[in-house]
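Minutes, structural biology subgroup

Action item carried over from last meeting: produce the structure token record for Phosphoglycerate mutase (Sinorhizobium glycinis). EB confirmed the sequence was re-checked against the source entry. Recorded below for completeness.
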Amino acid sequence: MADHDDTAVRRLMLLRHAKSAWPEGVADHRRPLAERGRKAAPTIGAYMAAHGLLPDLALVSTARRAQETWELVAGALPRRIDVRDAVGIYEVSATAILGVIRGVEASARSLLLVGHNPGMAELALLLAGEGDALPRLRDKFPTAGLAVIEFDAGQWSEIEPGRGRLVRFVTPRMLERKQ
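Output recorded by EB:
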């Protein structure tokens, strides 16, 4: 694959970690998933698998709830995904997360980030300039919500605010209603 292809589409998937528990005396970084989160994460994973939303690379926050979310999502996917821990997406701004994304190698055309609010919601709104689901996204980016944004870009370093198309925004609640 060439390092640069002007006609390439980059697919960015932003997944907010699933619902977490708040055990007393547990530091924020170490909070586990709640039972509701343990049910929601595989639902999102199954949706991703059914719709061909398989990342070439997953960057996962080092927080326990994000790691547990990824493990449950990955268990529903049909193939193994290259995954890396991403310290740089925990408790940082949307522009800081964008900096992490811009550093991803061009060979990864489809990228998944598993992170936290407010960063995930702010980043999705920063990047998506169009898309039918934008009003719902502006309203709320709930736990285990998945935003899929596509860019016409040859490399991740070329993506710019407002230039993405929000092609999907799904939540566990939406998927439960469809069953």
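Discussion: The first strand starts at residue 9 and ends at 16.
Next step: EB to file the record with the rest of the batch.
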